[in-house]
Write a structure and sequence with these properties.
Largest sheet: 3 strands, parallel
Number of helices: 3
Shape: globular
Strand order of the largest sheet: 1-2-3
Order of helices and strands: EHEHEH
């Protein structure tokens, strides 16, 4: 069954590895990273079936705005 998965730190390391694996398994990934260049690369590689944003999770207002945007476009995530 296809799941909607939210991952922070999706631009590199474990977050990136998890995103790639979930996408290859057919799931929808919504992710954020502080790096705009990483986000652009992910969006270019995986297209519009997934949603990647540049967000600094240390900024409460930025996280709130991102969460509202994501919940306005997608169902509640199955995994966070």
């Amino acid at each position: 069954m296809k799941k909607t998965i939210v991952i922070t730190g999706v631009g590199r390391g474990l977050g990136l590895a998890m995103a790639q694996e979930f996408i290859s398994s057919g799931h929808t990934v919504i992710g954020c990273s502080r790096s705009p260049s990483s986000i652009a690369s992910l969006q270019e590689e995986y297209g519009t079936n997934h949603h990647f944003s540049s967000v600094d999770v240390a900024d409460d207002l930025a996280v709130k705005n991102w969460a509202e945007e994501v919940l306005g476009k997608y169902p509640p995530p199955d995994l966070l």
